[in-house]
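>> Question from a student workshop board

For tomorrow's exercise we were told to take the sequence and the ligand below, predict the bound structure, and bring the output to class. My setup keeps failing. Could a helper post the expected result so I can at least see what it should look like? The ligand is uridine-5'-diphosphate.
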Amino acid sequence: MNRDRLTVVIAAFNEVESLPLLQPRIVAVLDALALEQGIDGQILYVDDGSTDETWPLMQRLAADDPRVAALRLSRNFGKELALTAGLDRVEEGAALILDADGQDAPELIPQFVAKWREGYDDVHGTRLEREGEGWLKRATAHAFYRVIGRLSKTPIPADTGDFRLLSPRALAGLRQLRERHRFMKGLFGWVGYNRAAIPYHRDPRAAGRSKFNLWRLWNLALEGITSFSTVPLRLATYLGLLTAAIAFVYGVVIILKALVWGDRVAGWPTMMSVILFLGGVQLIALGLIGEYLGRLYEESKQRPLYLVDTWLPARGVCSGQD
Ligand code: UDP
Ligand code: MG
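>> Workshop helper replied:
Here is what the output should look like for this input. Compare the format with yours to find the bug.
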């Protein structure tokens, strides 16, 4: 019988407390899948340059279990690149992306697999609620998904994280996207194919702290918008046109006033506010162009996406026999 292969890819940055809790849960799920559905399961951990004991722990996990592969990057590249590095090393079959902190329950994996078997290529978990996250994070996340949904031409499903199963062909498609600024949610959307959503309750973090504070999230949002939309540039054009139109009308008013009532030197407050307003608008537009230009610059350097420190490949699969 031709057995399917499934690799669970996990990016981890300083997750020494979470991984030991997660590992047995995944193994249990993969064992069940192997027995019941004839799927060969593997786990691939990516250490995103952790500064704690995460890497020794991964080495131990890989040494103890032939189904576990571990990859260490040369430094912290961020979650998006760590995931890319992991996905690049999935040799065959489908890949499933999971957070290291247990917020995406491994027990849901069979549901993802079922959809995959139905013929879907991109099965993604859609969060019904976010426990253990403050109102500010929830509100900003909500607003972000609405904004990017409107701005981007590529479909980006709302409230969808990286918890996702990619079929072999979706994975192959994703691998062809080698841009440096990687907004994964958008890249998945770009790939397309048959997509299915699985609603799930997102659990609070099992241990440790979130690596994404508001500032990092804000930068991620900027990344997403500039990578997947040029609408802000167009908005700048319209803003410019609008201010030019207003300036023209106002100019006519001033000239008429001077002609009718004579040109008394007055209007210092108006002059100042007009100058400041125009200066502000110009700086905003310049900054906006700079955001895009900076990304173009990064892209043009053609650096590799990440560097690998150590690669410990898996030595076997979860076939359910052990
Ligand atoms: N992560 C990573 N590199 C980083 C930051 C985070 O690989 O630079 C991993 C982290 O270990 C976790 C996942 O990305 O597995 C999600 O991070 P986190 O739980 O902190 O984010 P949140 O769930 O709060 O959005
Ligand atoms: Mg988390």
